[in-house]
Amino acid sequence: MGLKVEPILPKFGAECSGIDITKPLTEEERREVVEAQNKWGVCVYRNTGLTDETHIEFSRNFGHIEFSPARKGGKSRLKHRELFDASNLNADGEITKDPAAIQYRKGDRLWHTDSAFVPLRSSHSLLLAHEVPSEAGETWFADTRSAYEDLPQDMKDRLEGLVGRNSVWWSRKLGGADIPDEQIEQGMVGEHPLVHTHAGSGRKALFIAAHTMDIIGMERDEAQKLIWTLIEHTTQPQYVFSVKYNVGDLVIWDNLCTMHRGGEFDFENERRDMRRTTIREGTEPYSVLDDDQFGRLFSSVPKSVDIAGANEREKAS
Questions:
Q1: Cα–Cα distance for residue pair 299/69, rounded to 1 Å
Q2: Are 168 and 105 contacting, i.e. CB atoms less than 8 angstroms apart?
Q3: Under a CB-based contact definition with an 8 Å cutoff, are residues 241 and 100 in contact?
Q4: Which of 101, 111, 253, 289 is the most buried (most CB within 10 A)?
């Protein structure tokens, strides 16, 4: 039968079906899946039947899976380090009530690109729904390739060669967390060009996000004005759509040609259990890669967004 692809927007996003992704793919199936992802940027697979283990195995079709940071001496809700916990649940599987954990997740409501804030970028994110709220909880996606292509030439010329500085703590501060600027500067920063050529399609794309706090060689106020001008341009209605989840749905997005943001839901009363694998950009041998860049990133966390500390506080309360 082969992969069936139904576009969501004319040049962006697709619903995919026709292949059982819980089983090892043939080389032809793998090629179809990867080519669809390269073309559409976001691919939605409904009612997949994936488990944690088959989610991880399917993700390997896209490359090297990043490890989530180890919780030294702490309890983790998920047993596989290949899975990032994108839920509103604590280590005991209950809805978190800790203000720091709630505050951290507020940053997810801003337009962003996963892992822009680490030196080695992430290409694909594969998010699987295990539990969903009764209302809302969707994810919004924006097409950074078409948005770049539609920019006026003078703006394209202005962006040529510019490099952004990205920090996860910057976006958390924008989301309302009380984080001093000096602590942001002391943390990990990912430096990446604002415009790059997307390897999978050969099309140029913007690489911007709420994580982008500065542009090298530019004053912060000027840089922020430019960044948010680009974000506002990229999130116009013609470039965006949302995905509403049912249990078992898998959404794959390419961070190198999209932005996304989480939709609102009743965070403090409704369970939302989402688990994500994240694929590193590039094809370098794994032995030369820094497999603990997320561990280093989260080795020093501002208290106002300390999720690991939140787990300990909730157990003690």
A1: 9
A2: no
A3: no
A4: 253
Which residue has 């180890």 as its token pair?
A: 70
Q: Cα dist. 220→115, 172, 175, 176, 242 in Å?
A: 21, 17, 18, 19, 31
Distance between first and last Cα of the chain: 55
Q: Which residues contact 180 (CB under 8 A, 6 or more apart)?
A: 302
In the block, tokens 């995905």 appear at 243
Sheet containing strand 258-262, strands side by side: 240-243, 139-143, 258-262
Output the DSSP codes for 35-58.
HHHHHHSEEEE-S----HHHHHHH
Other CB atoms closer than 10 Å to residue 29's CB: what's the count? 18
Report d(CA 219, CA 192) in Å as an integer: 17
**pTM of the entire predicted model:** 0.91
- Residue 280 φ/ψ, nearest 5 degrees: -80, 140
How far apart CA 195 and CA 193 sit, in angstroms, is 5
**Mean pLDDT in consecutive groups of 10 residues from the start of the chain, 317 residues:** 94 98 97 98 98 98 88 76 93 87 79 91 97 95 98 98 94 87 87 97 97 96 97 98 98 98 91 96 59 67 60 48
Structural domains in the chain, sorted by start: 4-316 (3.60.130.10)
Query: Using N-to-C axis directions, what is the helix angle for 307-316 and 99-106, rounded to 10°?
Result: 150
